[in-house]
Design a protein that fits this description.
Pseudouridine synthase; Archaeosine Trna-guanine Transglycosylase, Chain: A, domain 4; 5-stranded mixed sheet; tRNA processing; alpha+beta; EC 5.4.99.25; PsdUridine_synth_cat_dom_sf; 301 residues; isomerase; tRNA pseudouridine synthase B
Length: 301
Amino acid sequence: MKRKGTGPDGLVIVDKPEGITSHGVVAKLRWLAGTRKVGHAGTLDPMATGVLVIGVERATRLLGHLMLTAKTYDATVRLGQTTVTDDREGEVTAATPADGVAREAIDAEIAKLTGEIMQVPSKVSAIKIDGKRSYARVREGEDFELAARPTTVHSFTVHEVRAAVAEDGTPVLDLDVTVECSSGTYIRALARDLGAALGVGGHLTMLRRTKVGPYGVESAHTLEQLEEKLDVLPIADAAAAAFPRWDIDAEQAKLLSNGMRLPAPGLGVDGPIAVFDPDGRFLALVEEHGGKAKPVAVFVG
């Protein structure tokens, strides 16, 4: 039986469990909220857990802008094995003992993967090539290459290096790390490239997203908790938390609601600004261009 929803309007911060796709979480939230208008900001693989930002009703229009914000991940990188998917779910394609890799070498290569870098995404990513997902091409046995693209790794921190033995008997090193990065960074690709640079191969064995923009895992809810109570962050609160705030007067609010462009607030912000009227009502996202506040998404009128 389809659940009767109340049509909430805002964001739901989900702590995604392992073994379910992001689309599966969206489907669950559609049922809980009683609406088809549900989406997510930034896919998590089934193996990954952690923060998945879900938009409901009007808040779906915030998602494209939230996807551009920074993200933080905790992960475990295994050095000594290469897999077809760059994570533990894929078949091992090569194994090289990693017990001789020095910590100094690890740190040196991680430094090269920090900052503004060019990264080739994993072939099993959701990137589209001529309208077809990369992972679908892999499943069909296609031989192709992906182009490198710019991304930024703000920090790549190693907390612990642990010696272990893989199931095939290969001596490996497991690195517990935290990565803070820009949108579009593939943590699997960092593991792959670190292992390749060290000459032993590498892949991910664990991935947990702990933060998307201002939304951290400490404020996220499990699916079981959401089944008990659908906790929705109101759209005004969500916008205020995620973007710089601009409060305007009643006359400006009227002009903006009628489609007029306002003089830019002069915040010097590169990206969306959340606009609020004197009553605290969220009106729009705007960007500063040529001295004007250009609307990128209007939520009234």
